Amino acid sequence: MNSIILPILIPLVVAVGCLFARSSLKIQKLISLIGASITFVLSCWILQHVYQHGITVLEIGSWKGPFGIVLVADLFSAIMLVISNLISLAVLVYSLTDVPKEIQQRFYFPLYQFLMVGVNGSFLTGDLFNLYVWFEVMLLSSFVLLALGQKPSQLEGSIKYVSLNLFASILFLSGLGILYGKLGTLNMADIAYKLSNESDSMFINSSAILFLAAFGIKAAVFPFFFWLPASYHTPAVAISAVFAGLLTKVGVYALIRSFTLFFVQDISFTHNLLLLIAAATMITGVLGAATQFEMRKILSFHIVSQIGYMILGLALLTPLALAGAIFYLVHHIVVKTNLFLISGIVIHKKGTDQLKKIGGLYQSAPFLSLLFFIPAFSLGGIPPLSGFWAKFSVLKAGLEIEAYAMVAVALIVGILTLYSMTKIWAEAFWKSDPVTTSAEEHPDSKPQKYLLFSYSPVIALALITLVIGFYTEPFFSLAQMTAEQLLDSNEYINSVLGKELP
User: Fold this and answer.
1) Could you give phi then psi for residue 72, rounded to 5 degrees?
2) Do 208 and 279 meet the contact criterion of CB atoms below 8 Å apart?
3) Which of 106, 411, 434, 452 has the most CB atoms less than 10 A away?
4) pLDDT tens across 20-72, in order?
5) Is the dihedral of CA 33, 36, 38, 40 positive or negative?
């Protein structure tokens, strides 16, 4: 059996196993950790295999594409598998003590595994209908996870989240219907092959707009981003963290995949539109963050602004810009997840993450301050941390093609991002501690020994941020190889269909 199906099968089997073991949280935790560890190791193996042997294709039931269902692992999907399953494992360890027992008992672990089934399936699928199916698996799992605490704010956030995402599903289905009616296929490689011979720019651009809106809602780009800051600060911190790290990135992945593989016939329209969306996304996101005084709300708005940088790399569509977007994607998944996890530790220590009500963490928790400093200032683009290299590569690509206005916008947004992170540092860590609820007084406080499970994934992700920042060359070389593979649609089509572009 081709192993690229295993990142989908293993979480599915673990989820079913957790359902059978619903009476024992210990067994659910154990098999979840084992399953997440195996999936991460397997993802690393898939990346190594694709790096050495090229694009790997699995034809389900030996039905050849474009008629059968195919799974495709190229460098881009393999990288996303590795980083996503790393985050899955890290957040799962954090969940063991952070997520309240009453939420764990409401099928938290099966839902978490079903979420990863959807994430991994989205990265590996080779056809658009199955991408829609995996999106729905993610949507259903994430909706229930959002609402697990049954607090009014969670229900409000989850309703906004699911309403707009259902609207995205309708747009996605409409785009699928138009493409299938015109081309008779939903296989991505076959769509790319047939659109390469399509001269009807109205048909291509109208389909591109539908997919741009559908994937844009998933990615939280302007003007569809408002569901994200309204919902991501409401659930348990571990759930926020895995959402912040992965869910919008699946939307970014779908945008990069579709606008490098098959919507490339009229880039003066599609990619100039992406440029405008990137600028608006960066500006609105960072301005929203600048006005907030709650850690998770600030971090949620930052997700929006940073998505803008990734879309900018896609819109510029040069090898360097695309490599920068991929590098940015990986860097951001690591640091954003870590910042949400740290916000959970702050809540544990202070009882709140409202910046006006907390302070003095630099004095009382210097190690936590160091752990916050690394991802926060990496996000702000301070050299030589990973965020600096991510921003530098996208900006350099913009300068090379004389997109000076976009470079100026990106620089200004970078400064405002740094301001927002400095605000968290100054308020929560540097200033004197105001009168607030102590950890011991807080009703959700946990025994000190369990902090081991909260700190270990935070330390691991901080170390990964340092490694990417100080040892950048191999990571960026891999991003460049990935960008070149994405820009060569002929390689993808040949691997899946066995034929080449005319």
Assistant:
1) -130, 130
2) no
3) 106
4) 998 999 999 999 999 999 999 999 999 999 999 999 999 988 788 788 889 99
5) negative
